[in-house]
Design goal:
Distance between the termini: 25 Å
Number of helices: 14
Largest sheet: 9 strands, mixed
Structural class: alpha/beta
Shape: globular
């Protein structure tokens, strides 16, 4: 891969050290709000405050919450059949001091000098334009995973972060700060399971849930929804539909997109791989310094035809990556199971329920299994298993050499105050996101072995695959120069 995009374990540790030594550093300029001592609170604005945005608000409640922006202000009771907690209207009630906006562009323009940092938790297709606009205005930016909707958008964000090294960036992979992920990295690099030979990462939600509850009704086929894209359905007055669409091509409003149903649509989301892949690939990317893959090949359910289906991702997918040898690590196969699960590894106790998402790291001496690390908390090891049990009992855990931050969000804010970078900054998160998006491209070219040139950062045997590096933008929503 290009040196300009490469981030080593040494860089990560250095960034984490910078974030963890705030009390020893002088005051820095924080955004455009002037000089703010490290002990003072940052003025933070939020774009998208339901679901993950609401979680970010809770984790950053110790700071000054100055502005909230969302485009769906319905209460849960206003959504038929979907009594969802944590909608924006509910969340905003907890922060009466914060100004509310529908349009994040208006928020940034009106409150420019009152905002030090911004959290972006919108749908995938609006991540890049919002985050890059804020970076251009001098803000520190936390952007949820996946960093962007397309490879070119991710690269634009990485360029912006390099251009503004004193603006702290962070990718929303909260498990990165957990005891689980940092222990995995330390154990693998310490040789706990010997030479790593294969990696399997997976999200098995729907199948696993139905297996636990056979009485649950089957989920409707995502393909059946395509026939409804031209339905003419009135937009609820609380939903600012055109603002929600943002850069995406215009289409009619439909409740099959909102709330939380947009992920599987090509114009808005990045599929289950873009959704869960950044969380589950993170530990192995960090531990093994993977870089870019040299080849990718995908299979999907037979029903999915990417040539005729230009609207959604498949119901299930299997993506086979191959990463080249690097340093002391040999070439490595990594397999993604989307809405499916890998074989249960040898040594797993039948009395323990296998996680419905996570990863399996297979080594010459044993295996490490981890569950949904995005639910992990700093300070306690909760979702990591070392197999077989004999190895688990005999293995002497190494000294904890990676810092353990308070949480993923505060690591970012502390780095911003210190004038440094956090450990999941956009250089690291950009590579992680690209690995997932390249897998999405392989899915849309199912059955074709795609060969990737890390130096040229493109596929060498498929111009149609390279053409998928970009997303279309509606006029007025282009990325800032």
């Amino acid at each position: 891969m290009n040196d300009k995009n490469r981030i080593s374990r040494r860089d990560l540790v250095s960034g984490a050290l910078a974030a963890g030594c705030i009390s020893l550093l002088p005051s820095r300029v924080l955004g455009r709000a002037g000089s703010v001592p490290p002990s003072d609170k940052a003025n933070i604005a939020f774009i998208g405050i339901g679901n993950y945005g609401g979680a970010a608000l809770r984790e950053l409640a110790s700071q000054n919450i100055v502005a909230l922006c969302d485009v769906d202000w319905r209460l849960p009771s206003q959504i038929p059949g979907r009594p969802l907690p944590g909608m924006a209207a509910e969340v905003a009630q907890r922060y009466p001091q914060a100004r509310r906006f529908d349009d994040w562009r208006v928020m940034l323009a009106e409150m420019d000098k009152s905002i030090d940092a911004l959290v972006v938790s919108t749908a995938d297709h609006t991540h890049a334009v919002a985050a890059l606009t804020a970076m251009k205005m001098g803000k520190h930016v936390f952007c949820e995973k996946p960093l962007a909707h397309s490879v070119e958008e991710v690269r634009a964000m990485m360029r912006s972060a390099r251009k503004h090294p004193k603006q702290a960036t962070q990718t929303g992979i909260q498990g990165h700060a957990s005891e689980d992920v940092r222990s995995i990295v330390e154990w693998v690099q310490d040789g706990a399971i010997g030479t790593v030979q294969e990696i399997q990462v997976f999200q098995d939600g729907p199948r696993n849930l139905r297996g636990r509850n056979p009485q649950a009704p089957p989920r409707p086929s995502p393909y059946a929804q395509i026939e409804h894209i031209h339905d003419d359905i009135p937009v609820p007055p609380e939903v600012k539909w055109d603002l929600w669409l943002g850069p995406a091509p215009y289409r009619n409003y439909n409740p099959m997109y909102l709330p939380l149903r947009w992920r599987n649509w090509l114009d808005f989301g990045t599929g289950i791989l873009g959704d869960h892949g950044p969380h589950f690939i993170d530990p192995v990317l960090w531990a093994l310094d993977l870089g870019f893959p040299e080849s990718i090949e995908a299979e999907t359910d037979a029903e999915y035809d990417p040539h005729s289906n230009t609207q959604t991702f498949p119901r299930r997918s299997l993506v086979r990556y191959r990463f080249p040898a690097r340093g002391r690590w040999p070439a490595l196969p990594v397999t993604w199971y989307g809405n499916d699960a890998p074989p249960v590894p040898k040594g797993w106790s039948p009395e323990v329920e296998f996680p419905n998402g996570g990863g399996v790291i297979l080594g010459s001496k044993g295996s490490i299994v981890y569950g949904p690390v995005y639910n992990s908390k700093p300070g306690s090891l909760t979702q990591v298993w070392l197999l077989p049990e004999e190895l688990n009992q005999s293995y002497k855990r190494p000294e904890k050499r990676l810092l353990r931050p308070v949480n993923h969000w505060m690591e970012w804010i502390e780095a911003a105050k210190a004038g440094g970078q956090s450990s999941a900054n956009w250089q690291y998160g950009g590579l992680l996101t690209q690995i997932c998006l390249l897998g999405d491209i392989a899915i849309r070219n199912k059955g074709e072995l795609l060969k990737f040139d890390a130096k040229k950062e493109k596929f060498t045997n498929s111009q149609s695959a390279n053409a998928l590096f970009q997303s279309a933008s509606r006029p007025g929503w282009e990325l800032p120069a």
